[in-house]
Write a sequence for this structure.
C-alpha cells in the first residue's frame, strides 16, 4: 500500500480514494499528503483552465513557446490566433513555420530574442495585412518560455475609429438635445397660446420670452454647426518661413490683456531665433488656443503661472507650454481632443481639436502630459 501510494504521487495520478481502505489508519500521514497533493493538483488545473479561458477571450493572437533542450515547441495557442490564421492548435514549431513563414522567419532571424516590430502576413487568398509583432522571454523553475503577440494594425485602427465616432456622436447628440428639447417644449406652449381667442398680457409676455429663448437656442445651434464646419473644412496650410520666437511673442501680446486681468504671470524663455515652415495665421491660432486653455485652467489656483519654452532635437522643434493649473482629470484624458468636448459651460469644445488638426496638417503632432504637478502641452514641428 505504501509503495502504491508513493507511485501514484510520483506519476501525478490522484484518481484513487484511500479514505475507506482497511490500511488507512496505518498510513494516516501518508494519505493526508496524498489528499493534499490531490487538492493542489485540482487547484492548479482550475487556475490553468481560467487562464486559458482568459487568453481565449483576448482579441490578440498569442502563442506561448516552451524550450525543450535546444528546440522550441508550442506550449499554448489561444483561440484568436488559431481561428484568425486558420491553424489547428499544434505543438510543433515546424508546422507553424509551414503555415506562417513570414512570422517564424523574423523570430528565427532574431534568434528568439525580445523584439517589437511590424510585418506583413497574407492569410490564404485574402489581402496582405500589417501586424504589430511583440515578443518577450521568461524563465521560471528552469524552464524558458517565449511569448508571441500579434495585433492587426488595421483592426486596431478600425476599433479606435469606431470608438471615436461613438464618442463624437454622444457629444453631438447631447448638444443637439440640449437645444432641441426646450425648443420643442416652447413650440408646444406657443401652439396652445395661439389657439386661444383672447391673449392676456401674461400670455403675450410668455410668447415674447418663448420666442427669445428659441432664438437664443437656435443661435447656439448655428454656432455649433459653424464650429463643426470649421473643423471639417480646415484649409491646407499656406506655409511660409517664420521666426518661432516672434510668432510666440505675437500670440502672447494678443492674450496679454486677459492675463493681466486674471493676474497670470507668463514666462517666455525663448531667447534664440529658430525658423519654422508654417502657416503663420493657423499656428498663431494654435498657440492662442493653448494659452487660452491654460488661462482657464488657472482660474481656481492661487499660483497662476504659464511657462513657454522651446527644445530642438533631431531637426524637430518642440514648443512646450506648461501651466500650474489643476491639471486634466485622468477620467477625461482620452476625450480632451474630441470635438465639442468641454468642461466649461461657455466653451465650444473645438479649441484643442482644431489645434491638433492644424498641427497634424503641418506634419507634426500635439500631445500633453502631467509633469511636476503641471499640465504640459507640446507642439512638435519640423525645423525649416
Amino acid at each position: 500500500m505504501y509503495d502504491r501510494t508513493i507511485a501514484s504521487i510520483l506519476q501525478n495520478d490522484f484518481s484513487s480514494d484511500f479514505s475507506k481502505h482497511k490500511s488507512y489508519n496505518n498510513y494516516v500521514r501518508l494519505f493526508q499528503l496524498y489528499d493534499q497533493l490531490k487538492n493542489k493538483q485540482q487547484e492548479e488545473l482550475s487556475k490553468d483552465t481560467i487562464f486559458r479561458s482568459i487568453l481565449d477571450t483576448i482579441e490578440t493572437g498569442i502563442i506561448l513557446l516552451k524550450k525543450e533542450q535546444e528546440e522550441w515547441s508550442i506550449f499554448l495557442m489561444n483561440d484568436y490566433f488559431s481561428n484568425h490564421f486558420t491553424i489547428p492548435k499544434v505543438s510543433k514549431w515546424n508546422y507553424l513555420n509551414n503555415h506562417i513563414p513570414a512570422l517564424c522567419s523574423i523570430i528565427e532571424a532574431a534568434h528568439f530574442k525580445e523584439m517589437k516590430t511590424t510585418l506583413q502576413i497574407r492569410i490564404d487568398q485574402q489581402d496582405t495585412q500589417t501586424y504589430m509583432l511583440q515578443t518577450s522571454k521568461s524563465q521560471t523553475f528552469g524552464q524558458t518560455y517565449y511569448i508571441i503577440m500579434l495585433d492587426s494594425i488595421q483592426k486596431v485602427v478600425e476599433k479606435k475609429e469606431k470608438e471615436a465616432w461613438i464618442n463624437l456622436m454622444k457629444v453631438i447628440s447631447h448638444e443637439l438635445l440640449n437645444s432641441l428639447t426646450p425648443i420643442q417644449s416652447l413650440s408646444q406652449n406657443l401652439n396652445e397660446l395661439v389657439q386661444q381667442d383672447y391673449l392676456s398680457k401674461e400670455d403675450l409676455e410668455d410668447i415674447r420670452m418663448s420666442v427669445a429663448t428659441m432664438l437664443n437656442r437656435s443661435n447656439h445651434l448655428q454656432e455649433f454647426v459653424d464650429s463643426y464646419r470649421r473643423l471639417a473644412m480646415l484649409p491646407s496650410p499656406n506655409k511660409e518661413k517664420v521666426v518661432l520666437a516672434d510668432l510666440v511673442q505675437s500670440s502672447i501680446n494678443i492674450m496679454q490683456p486677459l492675463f493681466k486681468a486674471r493676474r497670470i504671470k507668463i514666462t517666455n524663455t525663448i531667447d534664440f531665433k529658430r525658423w519654422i515652415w508654417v502657416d503663420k495665421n493657423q499656428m498663431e491660432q494654435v498657440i492662442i488656443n493653448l494659452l487660452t486653455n491654460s488661462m482657464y485652467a488657472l482660474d481656481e489656483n492661487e499660483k497662476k503661472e504659464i511657462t513657454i519654452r522651446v527644445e530642438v532635437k533631431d531637426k524637430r522643434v518642440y514648443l512646450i507650454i506648461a501651466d500650474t493649473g489643476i491639471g486634466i482629470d485622468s477620467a477625461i484624458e482620452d476625450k480632451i481632443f474630441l470635438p465639442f468636448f468641454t468642461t466649461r459651460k461657455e466653451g465650444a469644445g473645438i479649441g484643442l481639436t482644431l489645434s491638433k488638426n492644424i498641427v497634424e496638417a503641418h506634419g507634426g503632432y500635439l500631445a500633453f502630459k502631467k509633469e511636476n504637478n503641471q499640465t504640459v502641452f507640446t507642439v512638435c514641428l519640423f525645423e525649416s
